[in-house]
Amino acid sequence: MTDLHWLTATEVRELYARKELSPVELMDAVLDRLEATEPALNAFVTITAEQARDQAVQAERRMANTPFDELPPLTGLPITVKDLIDTAGVRTTYGTVTFSDHVPGHDSADWARLKAAGAILVGKTTTPEFGMLGVTDSRLTGVTNNPWNLAKTAGGSSGGAAASVAAGVAPLAWGNDGGGSIRVPASCCGTVGLKPSAGRIPSSEAAYDGVSSSGPLTRSVADAALLLSVTAGPHPGDPLSLPAADPRLFLDAVGHPDLTGARIAAATHFGLGPIAADVERTFREALDRLRDLGAVVTEVEMQLPDPIDYFLAFWSPSAADFVDQLRAQAGWDDGLLHPIMLEIADHARGMSAIDYWRTATETRSKIAAGFNAALNGRDLLVTPTMPLVAFDHPGALAGNADVDGQPVRRPALDFHRLTEPPSHAGLPALTLPCGFSSGLPVGLQFIGAAHADAQVLRMAAAYEAATPWHTRHPHI
Predict the structure, then answer these.
(1) What pTM does this model have?
(2) Half-sphere exposure in the Cβ direction for 329 (13 Å, CA)
């Protein structure tokens, strides 16, 4: 048997069903791995080891007394949860010093479903303040490192989640994504990361913008489908959540992966560069592999609105709101926030309500129209996930200063150029590794039409099954 800490959740379930592995045995391996890697990674805010061990014992007892196929689908599976997501009774800091001792009294809607399905919380993973940066660096926890190279960023804002999965801690992680906060760290760390269609996974607070969503970071596409299968569905607290789908829809999709005859559009970028030469080369090799698997791949030119402009116009008002709330706290000091967050907040103070409204309506409509045109008559759109691989820890810049020596306009936002647009169109988007450059993973992004989550999963699973990249592990 492979080392327990590298098993996927799907493999664990198969071993559980055959009674060849127990939840206690797996949890011991997970916690041992966490202890061994955490000093180097700095991926956790809170570790719930004692609680996790107790719940593993309880799961083992349930397995002994109940047929496996009658148990909740995540029974005995360890999971980490990003520290932006409320977990009743477990510290949730939102990445900030101000909330360093905050313990919510309720579960978020998504975590409540994961918990009810039997998942066991191992700990809360690191995030920048309120998830507002693309690198995982906060005044509360410091910098989270990339398990492939500790000098490189793990991405953000679900950086702790991606780093922990890639490093062999829990096989499952739960994060959230507005403009790439699942997909960027998954690409940096070489994991699968899924941002579902708008409304697929409900929010405890009505997400009327339809841009942000919770979602999985995993070691396989099948594991992402497993988590989606237990979290999707309507919720009374989110009136924009989608109706319930067949519970088997996502699992059946990855059970029958196929690309034969698939019509795929491919775009190296969305009209704005640059893209690193090694990323473009690896992307084109992935396109050739898709063709080998029977897909008809057509390269398309796309010209979408500037994602940096609409990132600032759309997200900076919420950053300003967060900053104002913090400044209202007694004894607050702006030095407790990353300077880029203050810069983003200040951008909002120079905007008008009309600026925001036009971005939320006209600009987003143009983005949706651009994707509709690219996907017209096609099953999927593929792009690189990032314009470059994981870069050196950026410090105050909070991003890459250049791509292949060519300076970028906004370092803190540039590397989200390819993940921000599909979010604003409400489309399902999944990243998985498609190769390596200088020992660092390169991500391939699969973007589907609205509500076509199952199709994205099916095609990504077909590519994954035919390539070796997901089987590689960092030597940390």
Answers:
(1) 0.98
(2) 13
